[in-house]
Amino acid sequence: MTSSGAGARRPNLDRARLLAHLAQMWRIRAFEEQALHGLDDKIVLGAIHPYIGQEAIAVGICAHLRRDDLLLSTHRGHGHTLAKGAEPLPMMRELFGREGGSCGGKGGSMHIADFQVGMLGANGVVAANIVIAAGAAHAVKLKGGDQVVCCLFGDGAINRGPFLEGLNWAKVFNLPVLFVCEDNGFAATTRTKSMTGGDGPSARARAIGLAAEEVDGNDVLAVDAAAGDMIAAIRAGGGPRFLHAHTYRLSGHTGSDPALYRPKEEVEARRQEDPITRAAALLADGEGVGLREAAVAEMKQAYDTAKATGFPPAADAFRDVQDAGDPRREAF
Ligand SMILES: Cc1ncc(C[n+]2csc(CCOP(=O)(O)OP(=O)(O)O)c2C)c(N)n1
Ligand SMILES: [Mg+2]
């Protein structure tokens, strides 16, 4: 770890960019801490999967995505969604099942989507987003243009079939998609290494013919640099790329998981590598002051407003649930 003022030893440091990254990581952290508070408050409907400790990945990657680029997320999707440009209030309302939620309050955390910013959806089915991303990238290719699709998934997802299907399809059709494996070491309560044959995510991607790189996922500037090169290559027609980002989930698997399957000392050691602390340590004294407070105020406001919002009217119960027909008739 570096102490504050270490930025002076990195003459090429783009301070404005780092400050923007730090602000965005604080926003994600503050959103999640508020959401966890909502569990204690008993207003979150369903589970939430905190992204705490992994923020540098979403932030470093989304810095290179345009609004019209497309993103596919997971069950751990709040950070991805915010980094892609979604507003926190509809997201918070969605967590609480309220009117005005991203999906009308019907989906909850694992179904948040915001097509306005190219966020095609969280996904509660591990690895399912990988084949959806390949499909979205195929659509982009057929339509023409230079949009990029980004698909984030966990290290557990690489042990499901859609990983092979999605990467293979993307390679065969030279599709504009960046696959990002967020390797936090765990799939729920299981250490992923104990369930993974061979040399892991990047080796598998290379075996399918994708250019693949590994990166320290807790170093926002390293992620930024790696993602920048890869996304530029994809946008230029270079085909799919694979980024394997090493990180650690500082929270439990869900907001209510005490994570007793790993020693406290391990978590404490990994907390020293918190991506926010590491980014802040690159700045000089006084830089970045107030970013945390601003993020907390923004997310508290979203929380309070969402909490004060009513539930959707009963008449809307079937709206957007089925795309055709009369659900009352079709139920029989
Ligand atoms: C097809 C499928 N199998 C099992 C589950 C239950 N489940 C939810 S999250 C999870 C772990 C996923 O691990 P990883 O892909 O590494 O993502 P992480 O939770 O670490 O972000 C599991 C097994 C699921 N949601 N979908
Ligand atoms: Mg994992």
Describe the secondary structure blueprint for this structure.
Elements: H1 15-40, H2 55-62, E1 70-72, H3 78-83, H4 88-96, E2 119-121, H5 128-143, E3 149-154, H6 161-172, E4 177-183, E5 186-187, E6 190-191, H7 201-207, E7 211-216, H8 220-238, E8 241-246, H9 264-271, H10 275-280, H11 291-307, H12 327-330
Parallel strand pairs: 1-2, 1-3, 3-4, 4-8, 7-8
Antiparallel strand pairs: 5-6
Bound molecules: thiamine diphosphate (TPP) and magnesium ion.
Thiamine diphosphate is lined by residues 75-76, 124-126, 153-157, 184, 186-188, 192, 249, 253.
Describe the structure.
The chain is α/β, with parallel strands linked by helices and 332 residues long. It has one domain: Thiamin diphosphate (ThDP)-binding fold, Pyr/PP domains (Rossmann fold, 3-Layer(aba) Sandwich), CATH 3.40.50. The chain is 42% helix and 11% strand. It contains twelve helices and eight strands. The strands form two sheets. A six-stranded parallel β-sheet has the order 2-1-3-4-8-7, sandwiched between helices. The N terminus is likely disordered. Magnesium ion (MG) binds next to strand 5. The site of magnesium ion (MG) has 7 residues, from strand 5.
